[in-house]
């Protein structure tokens, strides 16, 4: 029996705003992990938690080397987990990094990472998706405004908003090289999008998302209500953000690339079912069904 769909999307002729009443952004408490009650309260209210320096200098250097190794790995040429920019053919994203890289597999199990995910989600967790976003200089394309949960719900079958993402900067994130923007508090409103999901939508949406993007009217309402916060900071800084945060980033026409490690943690109590608005689930590297609890 399929679970009740609390967040219907891609089935109506007009967009709808659905207010989040069933799923908190924070499921655990201060005794469950490294974050204080004050941190958790802000995360519940804003939908995100910045971290000034998540990695030590030696860890950061090793992570940056691993990012470059994956970028140049000849064994990944032609691999569908590598997504390239439409106009330049430069690498846009590499998915499944926790499986491709023993270094990153070990790093995300650290209590500073997996421990925080367990605390926010109030349960054991697994990796729903992992990737490196490269956004090269002189042509890194934008990521349009979107809620990750809308896609994960519609195309992967994630039932509830009990997932959290970590974006860890591998390079300096300036205000001018396409850094992350989030509407604080927007995670409390689900924007139901218009239009059906095309077959194999992921083949185009990973380069430029169209299906599952919110309408301009809904975006305008959310931006006027919540404002927009842009995240800048040095390599090694990070931000945790809720699965339903409305977020995006501009393109990068500067000479300065912007690379981030992106890990999505899902509660084991929120494992995937059949997609709510697609004919079949996306590939495993986009929405894991064959997962292991992080220990």
TrEMBL record:
<dbReference type="InterPro" id="IPR012774">
    <property type="entry name" value="EctD"/>
</dbReference>
<comment type="subunit">
    <text>Homodimer.</text>
</comment>
<keyword id="KW-0560">Oxidoreductase</keyword>
<keyword id="KW-0223">Dioxygenase</keyword>
<comment type="function">
    <text>Involved in the biosynthesis of 5-hydroxyectoine, called compatible solute, which helps organisms to survive extreme osmotic stress by acting as a highly soluble organic osmolyte. Catalyzes the 2-oxoglutarate-dependent selective hydroxylation of L-ectoine to yield (4S,5S)-5-hydroxyectoine.</text>
</comment>
<keyword id="KW-0479">Metal-binding</keyword>
<keyword id="KW-0408">Iron</keyword>
<protein>
    <recommendedName>
        <fullName>Ectoine hydroxylase</fullName>
        <ecNumber>1.14.11.55</ecNumber>
    </recommendedName>
</protein>
<dbReference type="Pfam" id="PF05721">
    <property type="entry name" value="PhyH"/>
</dbReference>
<comment type="similarity">
    <text>Belongs to the PhyH family. EctD subfamily.</text>
</comment>
<dbReference type="GO" id="GO:0016706">
    <property type="term" value="F:2-oxoglutarate-dependent dioxygenase activity"/>
</dbReference>
<dbReference type="InterPro" id="IPR008775">
    <property type="entry name" value="Phytyl_CoA_dOase-like"/>
</dbReference>
<dbReference type="GO" id="GO:0005506">
    <property type="term" value="F:iron ion binding"/>
</dbReference>
